[in-house]
């Protein structure tokens, strides 16, 4: 059989398409939510559905969502136990196209899922989500189905990715080498990953149960384990360099003497002990009843083909050992942007994808959706002439490197020229009043080997760069320098986006994976290799977005269209990755061009318009104080008076999803049982109990406080500060008393004593369903209570709109407005003509004193809480604030098709009630004016304005009344 016809080819990608179609249909029609566990249903709703997605500025994109949903669908609903099961369920016809023996291998007789996700599209966040899904189900689901585990092994391909995983789970190291959990992914993005009811569980588990590679098997953990290591755990030695440049003599010595004494080689007594215990670590992992193994950059697990036979690499052999005797309780999840092997060359070259790929979010889709940088090949004439030059390093007859070729020097000069242009304009555009910038573009030079990289560094210095401008990280550098120096290099690399220096990173292979910075804008590939995986990984280092702010979204989309579809010069160089063309990569580039993945750039931009497009920075006017406005936030009332009666706990709905006797069954025994075990021969000794303080009256009170905090607060940006703002304003003591009485009398439809034994933990049972019910009931009644409250000497915070000193906007969509604090105001580039007309009309009206268009991302304090029609709490930002002699109008402009939307009506009711409450404040706390709410449709605006109505007349005709809204809502 021809080699091209053997193997998987692109069959797994077809499988992934079929799975995605089935899983998405199941999720959208509600089948998935009804069939998964309540824990999983909670997570899916929190991750992917309104109002949760509406109330945060960061959400999973469709590629991440696809991977998460596909995995949960196959694992929970279908209940697959082998990779063959996936094919049989999702697309049986594809089995006939597979090579007969492929899926019969032992390593595929387990639940095994591979995610193909383009570099830079956030596969780590999918990893985090799947870990949370498994952990919480293992903890809260009483039925032991074998589908869930609280043991995890995260495997990285090398040092860089390993360090990144430690950063993600434990937080980055500070100067004292202490890891700060507040810098971890789980803490920073908790509003995305973790429903509030589960936060303590997830945080507590991660902070106590993570084991670094040297701690596996020796660290005592309770209730589970997150072991983080690199693949060298499975090897006989601890070499970190995957691309050794040792000569033949050194290789022989290394084979004969795999452990060499001396601390300079990292082989002190502790290191030797680690090598001796390596087998014990695998034995420990193999002894666990269940485990989920997550392989990052999993293309390294591929088989080595030698003399026509496939041989398992050590990574896979180690996994096989851990999987022994676990059956379907061993779950494997693989992540890679390039999950394939290659056979043949030239016309017969074929990619063979991993057979267990269940989701495929490819680079083409990621680029077109703007989730990664757009790629441009620098095709200027002097680079095109490179084909006439030697682009390999100059070597003598013994292949010793003597220097760089003229071709290599030309490529480096071209890269530096592009970098200099980007630095000039990026820095000036983002510079603050103190002269500091937060956008520092970088250039990555990928060399032939470690013998060439010193010459690259020397040449760049000769071209005018300082030593501080350059960081060189060779593939075997961590083995050549002391550990302390590596720690310094590591910190410099991982924080490189924050600083102006270094400007250039020179490397061989050390940084091909895990070097996940955002500011790589220019890549100079001096390597002559044309292996597809290496080329894709080289480009992958620069794909992560540098300009993520919402204001840049439209101009970047326009630039992508120009470059990829219209074949024009880009509109802007924001998030444009420039590759200096290398003749050895011509075929690779042509393939990318044919797929519409890259564009070509013929000339350097020679002015700011060419780099930044028409983006401008707009500051405050010299006379901004004449037009400034503030947004009042009632922090609390010195004395809170409820005009209406207090809500009685008997009026709240009881929790009926589970009977209280069922909930009690889900409680764990008091305390977690631990034991000690000697590592090498597994002698067990010293059983002991660890009683959790969770079951004390203090913790019940703490739970009430957390309920209060969840219901009554939100966070917003005010200038450069993050502040806590109240969502609802009533007395905290009344809320606590109401919650306590409700829990003890009516929550379960019968008396309940939270202090009896471990009873109070029932409130957290069944994945927080009880807590979610509490939040919904209390939020709704509190909202009703505050709507009938009066104010006596309140404490009001005034958030001035001028606290945001500047805005970024597109000049083409910016208006010169007189009666506002900023030099210009922006309107949307897409369907923004209504807002444009409204601003010009308002500015001309002599009765208008000042107005502002609210930027919801920067003026995030200007928000109003409302209860959605599904009963959940949300916030929204109105469009405009307009000040006249007697009134201030909060104006929401809506298209004609949105004016009757149910949630728009809910916003109306909440805003009218907010205005009523604000109008009870002293005059000085509301700018000496009455506040009114106006909902203005496009038809009404044009109809009134074209017939000579003033802004005040339009607002009075379109203002919203509480009676009218309630009539609409309850008609």
Automatic annotation (TrEMBL):
Q: Enumerate the GO terms in the molecular function aspect.
A: helicase activity
| Pfam families xrefs | ResIII
Q: Which residues cross the membrane?
A: none
Is the ATP-binding keyword given for this protein?
Answer: yes
Instruction: Print the keywords alphabetically.
Output: ATP-binding, Helicase, Hydrolase, Nucleotide-binding
Task: Please list the residue ranges annotated as the Helicase/UvrB N-terminal domain.
Answer: 111-340
Q: What is this protein called?
A: DEAD/DEAH box helicase family protein
Q: Which organism is it from?
A: Nemorincola caseinilytica
């Amino acid at each position: 059989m021809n080699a091209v016809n053997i193997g998987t080819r692109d069959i797994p990608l077809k499988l992934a398409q079929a799975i995605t179609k089935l899983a998405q249909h199941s999720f959208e029609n509600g089948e998935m939510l009804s069939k998964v566990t309540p824990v999983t249903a909670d997570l899916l709703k929190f991750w992917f559905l309104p109002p949760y997605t509406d109330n945060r500025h960061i959400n999973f994109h469709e590629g991440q969502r696809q991977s998460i949903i596909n995995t949960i669908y196959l694992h929970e609903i279908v209940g697959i136990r082998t990779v063959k099961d996936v094919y049989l369920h999702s697309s049986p016809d594809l089995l006939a196209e597979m090579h007969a023996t492929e899926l019969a291998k032992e390593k595929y007789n387990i639940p095994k899922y591979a995610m193909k996700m383009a570099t830079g599209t956030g596969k780590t966040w999918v990893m985090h989500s799947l870990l949370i899904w498994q952990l919480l189900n293992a903890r809260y689901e009483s039925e032991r189905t074998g589908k869930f585990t609280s043991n995890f092994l995260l495997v990285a391909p090398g040092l860089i990715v390993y360090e990144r995983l430690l950063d993600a789970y434990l937080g980055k190291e500070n100067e004292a080498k202490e890891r700060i959990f507040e810098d971890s992914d789980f803490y920073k993005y908790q509003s995305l990953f973790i429903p509030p009811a589960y936060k303590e569980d997830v945080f507590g588990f991660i902070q106590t149960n993570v084991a670094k590679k040297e701690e596996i098997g020796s660290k005592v953990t309770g209730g589970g384990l997150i072991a983080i290591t690199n693949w060298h755990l499975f090897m006989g030695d601890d070499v970190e360099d995957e691309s050794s440049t040792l000569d033949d003599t050194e290789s022989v010595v290394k084979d004969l003497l795999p452990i060499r004494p001396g601390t300079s080689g990292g082989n002190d007594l502790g290191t030797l002990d680690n090598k001796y215990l390596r087998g014990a670590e695998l034995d420990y992992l193999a002894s666990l009843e269940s485990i989920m193994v997550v392989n990052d950059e999993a293309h390294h697990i591929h088989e080595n083909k030698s003399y026509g036979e496939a041989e398992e690499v050590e990574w896979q052999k180690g996994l096989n050992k851990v999987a022994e005797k676990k059956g379907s309780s061993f779950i494997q999840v693989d992540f890679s942007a390039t999950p394939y092997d290659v056979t043949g060359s030239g016309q017969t070259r074929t990619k063979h994808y991993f057979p267990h790929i269940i989701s495929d979010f490819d680079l083409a889709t990621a680029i077109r959706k703007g989730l990664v940088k757009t790629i441009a090949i620098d095709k200027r004439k002097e680079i095109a002439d490179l084909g006439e030059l030697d682009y390999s390093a100059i070597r003598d007859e013994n292949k010793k490197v003597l220097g760089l070729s003229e071709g290599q020097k030309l490529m480096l000069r071209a890269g530096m020229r592009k970098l200099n242009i980007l630095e000039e304009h990026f820095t000036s555009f983002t510079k603050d009043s103190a002269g500091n910038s937060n956008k520092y573009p970088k250039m990555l030079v990928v060399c032939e080997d470690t013998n060439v990289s010193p010459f690259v560094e020397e040449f760049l210095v000769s071209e005018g760069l300082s030593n501080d401008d350059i960081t060189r990280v060779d593939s075997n550098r961590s083995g050549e320098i002391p550990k302390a120096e590596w720690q310094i290099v590591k910190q410099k690399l991982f924080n490189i986006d924050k600083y102006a220096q270094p400007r250039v990173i020179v490397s061989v292979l050390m940084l091909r994976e895990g070097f996940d910075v955002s500011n790589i804008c220019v890549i100079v590939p001096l390597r002559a290799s044309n292996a597809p995986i290496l080329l894709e990984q080289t480009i992958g280092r620069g794909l992560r977005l540098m300009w993520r702010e919402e204001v840049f979204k439209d101009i970047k989309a326009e630039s992508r269209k120009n470059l990829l579809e219209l074949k024009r010069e880009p509109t802007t160089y924001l998030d444009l990755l420039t590759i200096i063309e290398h003749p050895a990569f011509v075929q690779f580039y042509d393939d990318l061009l044919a797929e519409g993945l890259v564009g070509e750039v013929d000339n350097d931009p020679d002015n700011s318009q060419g780099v930044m497009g028409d983006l401008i920075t707009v500051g405050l006017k010299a006379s901004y104080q004449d037009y400034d406005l503030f947004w009042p936030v009632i922090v609390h009332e010195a004395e809170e008076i409820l005009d209406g009666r207090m809500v009685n706990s008997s009026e709240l709905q009881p929790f009926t999803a589970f009977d209280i006797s069922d909930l009690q069954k889900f409680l764990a025994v008091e305390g977690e049982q631990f034991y000690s075990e000697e590592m090498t021969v597994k002698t067990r000794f010293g059983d002991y109990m660890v009683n959790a303080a969770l079951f004390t009256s203090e913790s019940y009170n703490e739970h009430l406080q957390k309920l209060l905090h969840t219901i009554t607060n939100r966070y917003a940006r005010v200038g450069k500060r993050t502040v806590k703002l109240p969502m609802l304003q009533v007395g905290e003591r009344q809320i606590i008393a109401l919650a306590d009485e409700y829990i003890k009398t009516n929550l379960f439809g019968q008396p309940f004593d939270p202090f009896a034994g471990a009873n109070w933990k029932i409130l957290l049972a069944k994945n927080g369903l009880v807590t979610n019910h509490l939040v919904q009931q209390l939020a709704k009644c509190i909202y009703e209570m505050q709507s009938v409250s009066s104010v006596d000497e309140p404490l009001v915070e005034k958030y001035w709109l001028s606290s945001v000193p500047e805005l970024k906007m597109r000049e083409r969509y910016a208006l010169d407005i007189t009666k506002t604090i900023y030099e210009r105001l922006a309107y949307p580039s897409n369907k923004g003509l209504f807002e444009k007309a409204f601003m010009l009309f308002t500015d001309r009206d002599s009765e208008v004193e000042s107005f502002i268009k609210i930027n919801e991302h920067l003026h995030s304090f200007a928000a109003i809480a409302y209860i959605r029609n599904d009963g959940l709490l949300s916030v929204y930002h109105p469009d405009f604030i307009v000040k006249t002699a007697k009134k201030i109008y909060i104006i929401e402009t809506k298209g004609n098709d949105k004016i009757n939307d149910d949630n728009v009506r809910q916003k109306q009711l909440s805003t009218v009630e907010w205005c009523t409450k604000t109008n009870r404040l002293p005059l000085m706390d509301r700018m000496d004016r009455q506040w009114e709410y106006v909902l203005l449709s496009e038809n009404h605006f044009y109809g009134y304005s074209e017939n000579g109505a003033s802004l005040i007349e339009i607002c009075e005709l379109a203002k919203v009344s509480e009676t009218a809204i309630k009539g609409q809502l309850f008609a």
